[in-house]
Each structure stands twice: as structure tokens, then as C-alpha cells.
Amino acid sequence: MTETRPVFTIPARLSSRRTLTEPFFTDAADSLRVKRRQSLRVCGLLALGGPLAGCTGGRGDAVTMLAVNEHDVSHTVTVWVVRGDRLRVAETVEVDPGEFERIAELSPDDGSGDPYRVTVQVDGAVRLAREFRPETWFNQLDVFIAQDGAVELNRGAAA
DSSP 3-state assignment of 64? Predict the structure, then answer.
């Protein structure tokens, strides 16, 4: 008969049911089963990826485009994005007051250095036309309608 010895002991301050000398694992095999279950749980969460999508970003990630409406009325927002000689986005969304809607996902930057040309139409009228060259990395490009109805284009790095 082999002698089993505790692999880990729970300190008394962490558990009112176990004493300092009572083993949490009865032997090394129990310890390995728990480690295996923890590993499978982590792998399962990573495989799902859904809850983690968009939480981190880096170069080569797609650019998420949103229409954000802080105005007190609904708006119809149409956005066109041209990069180089190619139309990359042509989308229309309805945005309720205090809400946001996803416009599109731009494919990752190809490093061409071509300028972005963005045109925004709100309720049938062109409200914004901008051209810019990305000097810093970004993965978020949002059309923002302020409380006073002003329209802005915001870009940045989402966490």
C-alpha cells in the first residue's frame, strides 16, 4: 500500500470547514484531475471566443464602424468609405435616440498608405466628408451624432 500525502492544503483563514492540516487533494492523481478540468474549462472558453471577440485588438484587426446617436430623435445614417480606388463600405442604418448601430467591418489595413475618404449622409443630407491617412493604428471608426445634432467622425483604438 502506498502512502498518499497532501499536494495542497487550504489555509484555515480561507475555509471554515477545513483545518490547516486537512488536505484539499488526497493525492497527486486528484490534483491532476482538477488541473485537467481547469485546463479543459479554459480551452472551452477560448474556443468559444465570442465573449472575448473585440475585447483586444492589434494591427491586422478589422475596423469596426458604428453609428452612435446621442440626439433626441432617430436618424437614418448612410456611410460610404473609399480607400484607394475601391469602395469599401456603402451602408445605411437607422439609429434610435441614445442608441448605436453597427455599420460595417472594414477588412484589415493592407498597409497601402492610401487615404480613407469617408462621406456621411444623415436623413438624406450630406453632413460630413473627410479624407485622412492613418498615421496611427485604429480599429474603431464611428459616426457620432451629438445631442445638438452635430455630426463627427471619431476613430481610435478600442480595447
Answer: strand
**Residues 75, 95 contacting (CB under 8 angstroms):** yes
Which residues, including other chains, have CB under 8 Å from residue 51's CB and lie 6 or more apart? 45
Distance CA 17, CA 156 (A): 51
Please give the DSSP secondary-structure letter assigned to residue 48.
H
pLDDT tens for 64-78 read: 999 999 999 999 999
52: three-class secondary structure by DSSP: helix
* Domains of the chain and CATH, by start: 12-52 (no CATH), 63-156 (2.60.40)
Helices (H), 54-141: none
How many angstroms separate the CA atoms of 55 and 133, rounded?
Answer: 25
Residues, the chain: 159
Query: pTM of this prediction?
Result: 0.62
**Helices in the chain by DSSP H: which ranges?**
28-48
